Amino acid sequence: MTLKIVLRNLLAHPLRNFLTSGAVFFAVFLLSFLQAVVSTLDAGVRSASTQRLWVQSAVSLFVDLPLAYESKIATVEGVEWACKWQWFGGIYKEESNFFAQFGVDPETFRKSYPEIIVDDEHYKNFEGNRTGCLVGKDIALKYGFRVGDTVPIIGRIFPRPDGSPWEFKVEGIYESKTAVVDQGTLYFHFDYLKEAIESGDTDGEIGVGVYLAKVRDGADPGQVQSAINAMFENGPQRVNATTEAEFGRQFVSMLGNIPLLLRSIGGAVLVAIFFAVLNTMLTIGQERTRDVGIMKAIGFQDGAVFRLMIIESLVLSLSGGLVALGVAKLLEPGMRMALTQQFPGFAMSTNTLLVGLAIAAGIGVLAGLLPGMRIRNLTPLQGLRGQD
Amino acid sequence: MALVPLNYTVRSLFTRRSTTILTICSMGATVAVLAGVLALQQGFATMFVEHGRTDLVVLLRPGATSEGESAFPRDRSDILIKSSPEIALGSDGQPLASAEVYLAVRRFKVDGGETNVPIRGVQPKTFEIHGDDLQIVDGRNFQPGTDEVIVGQSLVGRIRNCQTDATIMLNTTPFKVVGVFKSKGSFRSEIWGDADRMLSALNRRSFSRLIAVLKDPSKVEAFSERLENDKQVPAKLQTEKAYLESQTLALSITFFFLGSLLAVIMGIAAVFTGTNAMLSALTARMGEIGILMSVGYRPFAIFLAFQLEAIVIGLAGGLLGCLLVLPLNGIQTGTTNFATFTEVAFAFQTTPLVLAVAIGFSIFLGLFGGGIPAIRAARMKPTEALRRV
């Protein structure tokens, strides 16, 4: 009965209510998009493992550590193995196609990341092929890489003297179950890079950007961290061993005020949409004055007419909001692919969707309150006269 | 044709006060978002691109796209500077060129968190090259050959140990901060010191880039071509302006993308809201429209009156939006330019252009929001309108 009245009322002004619901649709869509971006930014921090430590130069992200550090780190009590990571920083065809490439040790890399899913056969081929590479599912989709393809990458930090691109053969495509590893990276053999520098096939210097140190089960990561830092206290390169969460937070912190900026934009969107819905609800409340008078005259309680108004407002707001969240979820794969460069791992998480739902419901209830309270306090006579 | 008096439009807005105010607030918030993002983009663009010189060139290793990736060993950079007659000469007859070491170092922010601050090691000629673009505002300049540095003004108060008399550690070497400098361009978020001391403290063998002033700025192309094909020391040459543009392209595109996305999505929502406000104005004023028509106003005049009313609402929203973002002017903000992985600090700039675009956008919102209701009003039959009072 209640719902029937609400629907009849809403359908009596199809254009106006469609526009209001539409405005909520756009606002909630935008809010959930912004929320997804902000939560993607620190998703890596939240899902970090305590079993992986990152050892980097204490001076700068751009200063390499000596190759000899690998065996030294591996001897630290509680470290199971160390895996070399070197940033390659090349470009695929054009600068606008940027994605990350890292030279790693294939054997320890796989052992360090049980969260990475890749075909065993393919991984074996990757390990066996010095010029092979492993690419993430997102860039594989975006650029159409398939197993067996050759990916040309122009080196900028490690340029070939004749300016020609490096060529990596795709041996496998990986998926990642953790936000720590995005699906938009190309991994290749560190040794291939090292040998190319040694033989003069490329400019650049041999070094390791960061070491991943796997902490043995049962060992205390904090102690391992201090032991590694102490080991290189007097140089030649001071290091900073951090937990994976801390390592990720460092990149989030680099964004500076961007998350705050996105949140402020979200706030403004919220204000704009709240006023819009409130406006419609106030108009509805005015129009409903006479109806309410009749309803009260035939025995409807104050609470009932109040509830009706709130429900009407909720339906108006939620109809737009729910469709927006559905569309956002549907567009998720497309947006992830489009944003793989700016926000790798972009996802509409359940949390994000729930936040969107709560916002739509909140707007609905709040916008219904003011006109709801007004009609609750009307006497039947005031209502019938059509004035307060 | 007689137009409906402007007075009528304005008075109508006042009689429906709450709807008018709510719609204006809603549009104001929309316009404020667009203007805010634009102000950010403007602040960013003025800082980087507008201060780039065209008589100053930047030389990088071939293949490198930023100074962080580029490398010039000392012997090569010396040859390049000495063997290039295209470079202007300074007051002492030496080429106006400087090799620079550049590295983004890890620093801690005063309010917590870490960021990458660019450190630039420069040779003495650099100060003659930059001239008045660079001014010491506190303390003094560093002495060449010593472990002293000066810090850019926008680091002060944001990055730990960035003030006169503090000490900055680079790996295992302490550097003393002896002064603070200001610059209109991006140098103001950098730390500067002696190039050779930086090389040794940072354990590096190569400079990052060279800068040089041209004798004849119109011959950039020829110089660039010669260096590209140089057998001994090939190099990639760009004017400072072009270099800065290439460095900030990605971030500029991101701002532009963000701004347009917000403008389109929020704009549609605002048009819907505006349409609603005008529709309810229409419903409330049926009788008046009927009267206006029966006293002889043409449908087009009615259309104009409603359209005008919507535009006035849009314009008021635009003014409110501008008022909301004006206090942002000059507020410093910082983020990382991921093309160079360094922190850049810049201020919101609510330039006249930003405000003009915001106002234009708000008129546009009013125009579109008022469209449907105005057409509906104009199409009404006088008898019908009068009957529906």
What does this structure look like?
The complex is a heterodimer of chains A (388) and B (389). With 388 residues, chain A is an alpha+beta fold. In chain A, 55% of the residues lie in helices and 15% in strands. Chain A has helices at 2-12, 14-41, 43-46, 69-74, 106-112, 120-128, 137-143, 190-198, 221-231, 244-254, 258-287, 289-297, 302-338, 350-377, 380-385; strands at residues 52-57, 79-87, 100-104, 116-117, 132-136, 150-153, 166-176, 185-189, 210-215, 239-243. In chain A, helix 2 (14-41) runs antiparallel to helix 11, helix 11 packs parallel to helix 14 and helix 13 runs antiparallel to helix 14. Chain B is α+β, with helices and mostly antiparallel strands and 389 residues long. Helices cover 48% and strands 21% of the residues of chain B. In chain B, strand 13 (332-337) and strand 14 form a beta hairpin. The two termini of chain B are 26 Å apart. The chains are: A alpha+beta (388), B alpha+beta (389). Chains A and B meet through helix 2, helix 10 and helix 11 of A and helix 2, strand 3, strand 4, helix 7 and strand 13 of B.
